[in-house]
Amino acid sequence: MSMFLGLDVLGVDIPSWRDKALFTPGPLNTSGPTKQAMLRDLGSRDTEFIEVIKDVRSRLVGLGDGHEEYTSIIMQGSGTFGVESILSSTIPQDGKLLILINGAYGERMLKIANIHRIQTVSLRTAEDDVPDPKSMREALESDPSITHVAVVHCETSTGIINPIEEYGMIAKEFNKIYFVDAMSSFGAYPVNLRACNIDYLISSSNKCIEGVPGFSFILAKIETLKATEGFARTLSLDLYAQWKGLESDGQFRFTPPIHAILAFRQALLELEKEGGVSARGERYKRNYVITLSAMEAMGFKPYLPAEKRGYIITSFYYPAHPNFDFRKFYELLSTKGFLIYPGKLSHADCFRIGHVGRLGASDVKGLMSAISSVLKKMEIKLTE
Predict the structure, then answer these.
(1) Structurally, how many domains does the chain consist of?
(2) Can you name the residues that pair with 120 across neighbouring β-strands?
(3) Cα gap 188→281, rounded to integer Å
(4) DSSP β-ladder status, 70-76 and 215-221
(5) Which residues constitute the domain of residue 148?
(6) Domain membership flag for residue 12
(7) Which of 42, 48, 145, 202 is 20 to 30 A from 292, alpha carbon to alpha carbon?
(8) Interacting residues of 300 by C-beta distance below 8 A, sequence separation 6+
(9) Closest CA to 59 of 197, 224, 266, 280
(10) Could you report the per-residue pLDDT of 261-296, keeping only the tens digit for each?
């Protein structure tokens, strides 16, 4: 029996699996089966749904190679909700957080910490560079009151990849709790929780695992998490309480995003079928290589030097041409079925092209052809 049964009666056309090609850091394009997985009605206390939750949580720990030392907690809301859950409910009132910042999402962590009146130390680096491990070490040596360290893995404001394993080694040496925001990298870059000495890793359903928006998830070292009971500064974002609820009866404390979780389970199965994190990362890397080659051939210049770029998303400078207007550039690409992303830098005018999601070489080549066509329409020539 078709899962779409009944739509014809309502006079609704069944849409294609993709409306536009999303070259963004997320939400991303998803597969047809992932979308179809949402076309069910399950209750939040349904035993079938509880089994789905159990399966998803187990698979997530496996992706991080966490084994029995780690657990996973699903938190309703976007990735930022997950970040705020960790910062607001796992740092004690007398704790102090060192944040390594080299972009907008490190700054967001600082803003969250300030709202919750958490003591912080900020180690800021230019947006085109990674935080210096030596400076991290010096900060920990000079201030023994620091209890926690936080960093973003892939800072998607630029696409830079920060060396989380090196930071983790230093955090362990100084016996600090270590947070990693892996929002845009988990599922595309192999991350070994134990090798990186990570206590908490945060990611989101609508990033590289290629699910739909609706929740974040946290991979937590169980021993560390158990020590945080009573630390929460909010009710709904209490990570320890959320974990206890899921562990006790498999249920959420508050209404879960049922359909997003059903889609996510399907997305996890597809990740496994593709060959796991390494295989998916290779596909994204191919997308990146094709993009970079074509964009440079057209005269665009990437913001980051080659050795600092990841393959999740790439920032390109606005071309120095009097006819270039990003809003018009964006809208013309959108009418052709391609969405790119505006920049998020504090000191340079850039736009971004993502390489992730349910996209392959043919999609990327389609975007490159569209950009070439749009440049001609805007009467922009960047090369001789």
Answers:
(1) 2
(2) 97
(3) 4
(4) antiparallel
(5) 32-272
(6) no
(7) 202
(8) 316, 317, 319, 382
(9) 266
(10) 999 999 999 999 999 999 999 999 999 999 999 999
